């Protein structure tokens, strides 16, 4: 690149800023301990995974063979035979959610999309783009969907083929919607298995639950029809990306033949990122199953450490089962801004990602929250 000195300096100062903030994030679920330097040389090529990796594309510089491996890995993880599944590496969790909703809408064009209040904000966008009727369902205090309310709303809409957007780890509190209860209740209403669609938004927890001893039901074996995970969250990636897996039979309904690249294309984008495919491939091959288990265990222990420490200081912190998201009362703006915390209503959270190898950053934040709480209490007693 032929940059002026001023522009080079600008990049240098952004570089310093990034270095300084590299491991800072404690309010967002982004892993920061990845190393993809062995892939840097591929940035010399204009790679592109346009279309379906199952097809022979005319565009030579693709990483389809790696994408196939990645999808093999995730079909295993989410308990669906590889040949019965289809999916791809997306631009992020949102695209995967959109893909799931798109499949569902093609199956049941006039049905309503049900999701809880605690659902990620992107679902509203998706429903709008796909012009789907939608219905917001109440949630319980821990962030799970209120199944009673879900069923009531399906009944009052006289919906024969509901589309349910289930949270497998909500953004704010890591709550997992009770998928077996939802299915039981649908069965009791005489809505047969082929007459509803169940999408799982597993942006963060999709890469946690497969590695814990007692996961909540969330896989294809538990009746899920599609599942979306973010690649830049638990796995970690310098570029946002994700993975979506669906049932092959549903995907084949939406195939479009594209003459000029001589490939079928079921994906949402046209040109697709082939570099992030290589990153996901490297990530899944960098750790064995038991190493992933260890990574996740460490995060879970760290989360429990934070809950205990906050509770000992009289702060009502909590977390959901199998979640690394620690919820506590929203501190003053000065604190949540300083620590870049995500806040929502009266709550804030911290997330114990794998790059928190020591308790240092977590301790720092907790101390600040404790002092802040004391000050708030003192203020309120005057
Ligand atoms: C982060 C998140 C998303 C969005 O994922 P992106 O990868 O940012 O598009 C969707 N759902 C939940 C529950 C999330 O936490």
From TrEMBL:
GO terms for molecular function: carboxy-lyase activity; pyridoxal phosphate binding. It comes from the Bacteria. InterPro entries: Group_II_Decarboxylase, PyrdxlP-dep_de-COase, PyrdxlP-dep_Trfase, PyrdxlP-dep_Trfase_major, Pyridoxal-P_BS. Keywords: Decarboxylase, Lyase, Pyridoxal phosphate. PROSITE patterns: DDC_GAD_HDC_YDC. The modification N6-(pyridoxal phosphate)lysine is found at residue 233. Pfam families: Pyridoxal_deC (PF00282). GO terms for biological process: carboxylic acid metabolic process. Its cofactor is pyridoxal 5'-phosphate. Belongs to the group II decarboxylase family. This is L-histidine carboxy-lyase (Histamine-forming).
């Amino acid at each position: 690149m032929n940059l002026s000195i001023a522009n080079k300096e600008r990049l240098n100062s952004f570089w310093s800023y990034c270095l300084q903030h590299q491991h800072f994030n404690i309010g967002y679920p982004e892993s920061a301990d990845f190393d993809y330097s062995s892939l840097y040389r591929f940035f010399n090529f204009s790679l592109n995974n346009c279309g379906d990796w199952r097809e022979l594309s005319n565009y030579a510089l693709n990483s389809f063979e790696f994408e196939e491996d990645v999808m093999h890995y995730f079909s295993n993880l989410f308990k669906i035979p590889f040949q019965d599944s289809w999916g791809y590496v997306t631009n992020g969790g949102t695209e995967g959610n959109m893909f799931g909703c798109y499949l569902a809408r093609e199956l049941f064009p006039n049905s309503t999309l049900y999701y809880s209040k605690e659902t990620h904000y992107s679902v509203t966008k998706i429903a709008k783009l796909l012009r789907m009727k939608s219905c917001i369902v109440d949630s319980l205090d821990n962030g799970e969907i209120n199944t009673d309310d879900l069923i009531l709303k399906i009944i009052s809409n006289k919906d024969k083929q509901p589309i349910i957007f289930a949270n497998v780890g909500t953004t704010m509190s890591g709550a997992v919607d009770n998928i077996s209860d939802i299915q039981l209740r649908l069965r009791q209403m005489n809505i047969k298995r082929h007459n509803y669609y169940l999408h799982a938004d597993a942006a963060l927890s999709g890469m946690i639950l497969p590695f814990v001893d007692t996961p909540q039901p969330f896989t294809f074996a538990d009746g899920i029809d599609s599942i979306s995970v973010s690649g830049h969250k638990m796995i970690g990636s310098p570029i946002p990306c994700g993975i979506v897996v669906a049932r092959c039979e549903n995907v084949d309904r939406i195939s479009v033949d594209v003459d000029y690249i001589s490939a079928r294309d079921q994906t949402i984008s046209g040109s697709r990122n082939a570099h992030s495919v290589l990153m996901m491939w490297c990530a899944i091959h960098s750790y064995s199953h038991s190493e992933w288990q260890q990574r996740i265990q460490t995060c879970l222990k760290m989360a429990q450490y934070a809950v205990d420490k906050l509770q000992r200081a009289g702060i009502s912190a909590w977390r959901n089962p199998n979640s690394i998201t620690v919820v506590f009362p929203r501190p003053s703006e000065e604190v949540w801004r300083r620590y870049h915390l995500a806040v929502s209503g009266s709550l804030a959270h911290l997330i114990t990602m794998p790059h928190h190898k020591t308790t240092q950053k977590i301790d720092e934040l907790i101390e600040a929250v404790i002092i802040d709480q004391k000050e708030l209490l003192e203020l309120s007693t005057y």
